[in-house]
Amino acid sequence: MSIDVARRDAGAGVLDRPVTSGAPDEVFREVLAVADRVADELRGTAAERDRANRTPRPEVELLRENDLLQVQEPVAYGGRGLNLAQAHQVTRRIARGDTSIAHLIGYHYAQTRVAQLFGTPEQADALSRRNGEERLFWGGVQNPRGGSDLVLTRDGDGFRLNGHRTFASGASLGDQLSVLTVFEGRLQLVSIPGDKPGFVALGNWDNIGQRLTDSGGVQFDDVRIDRSEVLGDPDEGHPFTPYQTLVTPHWQLAFVNFYIGTAEGAIPEALEWTAAYATPWETSGVQRATDDAYILQTVGEIVSEVRAAALLADRAGDAIQAALDIGPSLTAEQRAEAAVALYEAKYLTTRVALDATSRLFEIQGARATTTEYGFDRHWRNIRTHTLHDPVAYKAREVGDWALNRRGPEFSLYR
User: Any residues with CB less than 8 A from the CB of 30 and at least 6 apart, and which?
Assistant: First the structure.
């Protein structure tokens, strides 16, 4: 019995449900065409910008100018009505040009949906309207590891926020920030303007990859938080619902798409360079590198694996979107099925993207490692971000579901 048949026998789940939301195909194609043009523009200067390691303000403005920041908002608010899965197809297209900027827009797409999960309907609608009309860029402070707790305490009719984090993507550039705090011993999401007095982005990100993601440390010193900026009712004290715990797959779906998008972008760069500059090995018996049997075999293996991983990423996006479409009535079983579909893709896209961005040098040869070309940025970017959370644990969670039908217990990593 196949795994999918076993799941169906146990009851209809998200993998059997069609996606019912999102933009019409024509609108979706238009947005993807814009994303492709932006990716082409980013690709032309990606190596140079990676070496410069500057704050990516011009790149964020490029996304804003091309109306890519508000694609998930309703048409009536100035958006294009894309659902989350469609938005992360944009993330994938941008990754083909620059993984760092795909990281930023992928996180942005996830951050802008947090109010839909945790806020009141009024809060969600107000933020959606602002996103559409003002084309806001969202940064986030939600990584639970590194630094101190971000503690939210009462202060009259509002709150104060104190603490620091060592990693927060897009925080110094964010018009709006989504921040995970601890309030009276439990997790609490807040959504605040990026220019709050007492908030400081430390500007200390200098890693080997994802260099243009504005991912340094942040500090909150007695930051005033208004009641309206706290999502939902902080006094309810209820555990998160299965629907709310889709917040973690939100981010993980971004990862899956910019991993595989990076590999998709690295392949044509390597093939173009190989056709122009590579030489066949001395014992190959051919005159052109493009006829070398081992080069052809390597290209075939890489292309096949990347395409297979991309299809699994598409399946994961559909599963998460189907779960979102169910809404607050989502069951724990349905949440688990969607999460596992995503973690299958997370495992495979991690392995395939790392392998592809490394092995492509085998078809190009040693000259392709020249710093001027910057081909190494693809592997450095993937290697850096795939350390975000150990992929071995994703494989374990997939295995536990397949063997024991135990779904991943919610955390901010699963």
Answer: 80
